[in-house]
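Format is sequence with structure; example below:
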Amino acid sequence: MTLFLGIDAGGTSSKSRLTDEHGNILGSGHAGPANTRIGLDALHATLLDVSMQAIQAAGLSTEDTGKIRCGMGIAGITRMGMKPKIQALTFPFANVQLTSDAMIANFGAHMEGDGAILIIGTGSVGLVKRGEDSFSIGGYGFPISDEGSGAALGLSAIRHALRALDGRTRPSPLSQAVTKQFDHAIPRVIAWMDDAAPGDYASFAPLVMDYADLGDEIALSIVRDAALHVERFIETILSRGAPRCVLMGGLAERMRPWLRVRIVAQLQDALGDALDGALILAGRPIGSGASRR
């Protein structure tokens, strides 16, 4: 029997799911970031790690990997020259198909039918698919893009915290919660910044959302601004002719209550998730529907 392995390699974490041709889940895995920014060697190692976790969870041996057709959605694969470099990496599977993490999310949300998604996670990107054509909106990379994302929320929180520390603005409960993680010392923030990745900034997003829920003035300002960006994304996606739009990503459910009712009313529920999309990319029959235990 042919087996299908789907991998969702994102800026914050990577996930895998192994199924049979009927969509029954045999095993899964979870690892750290696997986007192209971490370097090819680290990316390759993470992809292999998360793959083997699912294979081992299914009770399969390394000899069984030759039966597996694999689909990978990788954050940053659309960067210039990156896809050929990843295609040159060695994987032990019968077949490997590659695309972006946004594309597998779209495949899963609409079961490869026409439609659009807006991913709000570490970064943000809209992707519209109509027939054989597809195009993205935003998603050019942090910090020049990724509006409304977790990384953008975290960056705004860090900026506010630094202004509070040096006296340019009054401290708030949010700023104090942020600077507490750096012992309220500016040099520690700067040292952290030197090596901080988008996922590190995004780690502050739940804190921003929590303090917004509590009524913190600065947190409210940050979240409301992010919500305006998300709404503009959705309006643009729908104006480009998308028949369906699904809000996805780790920040989606927390951001949804901050959107206007008329915007939310235009959103649809996802038919499946990004790993379902990766499995479709791998070649699993679409008639099997979303993965199931």
Remarks:
- The chain has a mean pLDDT of 94.
- Strands lie at 3-9, 14-19, 25-31, 68-74, 95-99, 115-120, 124-130, 133-137, 245-248.
- The first helix runs from residue 40 to 57.
- The longest strand covers residues 3-9.
